[in-house]
Amino acid sequence: MCGIVGYIGPRQAQDVLISGLSKLEYRGYDSAGIAVHDGAQIEVKKKAGKLANLGTLLEGQPMSGSLGIGHTRWATHGLPNDTNAHPHATEDGRIVIIHNGIIENYLPLKEGLMSRGHEFKSETDSEVLAHLIEEAYSGNLEEAVRAALSQVRGAYGIVVTHVDHREIVAARTVSPLVMGVGEGEMFLASDVPALLAYTRNMVFLHDGDMVVLNDDGYRVMDLAGTPQKRAIEYIEWDAEAAEKGGYDTYMLKEIYEQPQALTNTLIGRLHDETGEVNLDINLDPGSFKRISVIACGTAYYAGLVGEYLIEQLARIPVEVDVASEYRYRDPLVSEHTLAIVVSQSGETIDTLEALREAKKFGAKTLGVINAKGSSMTRELDDTLYIHAGPEIGVASTKAYTSMVSAFLMLALWLGRARGTLSAEQGADLLHAARELPRLVEDALSPERVQRIKEVAEKYAMARDYLFLGRGVNSPTAYEGALKLKEISYIHAEAYAAGEMKHGPIALIDEHLPVAVIATESRLLEKTISNVQEVRARAGKVILFLSDGDTENARHGDDVIYVPRAHEMVSPVVNAIAMQLLAYFTATALGKDVDKPRNLAKSVTVE
């Protein structure tokens, strides 16, 4: 989940590398480094901490040269210090590598290399690759990289350069890599935003691909050396879309982008005249007896909303699995199973491996994915793109609400196709879905945002939080707790409200804020009963109510009103309030919301 950038062309490589890494720092900010080939030698500079530390180092010691590679690290093996930072070079400095991923068999490889006289400087698994390439090198860098990779087991996006060659050799298995094709110059990165300032023509490398970049262009082949054809894809969104756009943080910008993101998710797919949904997927909705939804983190909670919607509207049994556990529990899968994987990046390693497990047993597969050209999209039977646009903030916002909206459309499509949802019911829900961008824009009105800010600041010093919800909004409570944990570091738990008396009620006292989602629903009365149980034990109730519900406002110590919405679409609207509560709590505490500690945007290692 580290960030990779490479460049060869007429420009000063240092400028391109630092610019690209600044767009990828969300992928890891334990350390950063660059290597630049000046025609005679490869100079390496690296520094622990955020990219700014490397920038300070380079201010007084700029690097000259038009070929280079750069890296921003999220530590897996070895402490986040200067020595373990990438790039890694061989002892003579002639071969330099950067690596994203994990080499699972690095210890026996390292022991073998050391027994043959190789000396290691770092504690990383990545340095093994540099020494393996050095040992295999006899004048052809491409062949040496291929020979080295034949010995390793694990996940990697690797980029290599050699002092004797004006070329960059790269390869990937699991860890993403994308090339940018310019006029007389070539770029390489682990994600598109790093390259958009220079080109929108991208080539997405597949699992098992190797590429050689030089001044003449590029060649793609598999790890056996067989040439491969990879299409150049034009990226429609530009570099400005990946910048903060005047907001203080990426996260806040992306919260405010949600009306547009939802419009992009829904547009062209809802047909009022027929009450139908067109998802442009070719799966047979009548062939499934059960559905497995597989995801991690925020995407998992979107899947829980999806479970509720699909079972209610399409009457198909759905189970939702944490991807990191799915393939280890010997799941019951058959050709009558639809496995739905959910991922913003399409690169989440646990979800990717779970997808492969489901396919192994004959399941049909569908992805709810944001990133086009990602690893999952190439292995799925079909993909439902959410079209949320680039999401840079580590804590997901617009991708989450777009995923939930995609599940609503999927449930509508399945329900209509299977005959479990009447045309009238379908039209009603379709109208509710179409209203979502407007409702979310309302949820982001200055008055509502200010009210949430006031409540967040009031409870910012709390050590713990409890989130409660019922029915389709119980996952909204889980997502609210996750957001608060991720960016404010306040301990937070979430429960279905009816479960509170089965244990969590023991936590409640006058110091505990309890955020309760009590918007209009068929379970509202029961939710208010749960609120009474909290108040009876002196808990501080933050009550989220639908506009106009003055009757229940008396049950909250603090009340936050959200736009009134159809129960089935309310998780999207209510999520906005959860995001803002977490955001303003974190900023009140002075936290860096875009780069929360220990987290990275795209988890591409187990």
Automatic annotation (TrEMBL):
Residues 2-216 form the Glutamine amidotransferase type-2 domain. GO terms for molecular function: transaminase activity. It catalyses: D-fructose 6-phosphate + L-glutamine = D-glucosamine 6-phosphate + L-glutamate. InterPro entries: GATase_2_dom, GFAT, GFAT_N, GlmS/AgaS_SIS, GlmS/FrlB_SIS, Ntn_hydrolases_N, SIS_dom, SIS_dom_sf. Residues 279-420, 455-596 form the SIS domain. Its EC number is 2.6.1.16. Homodimer. NCBIfam families: glmS, PRK00331.1. This is Glutamine--fructose-6-phosphate aminotransferase [isomerizing]. The lineage of its organism: Bacteria, Thermotogati, Deinococcota, Deinococci, Deinococcales. The gene is glmS.
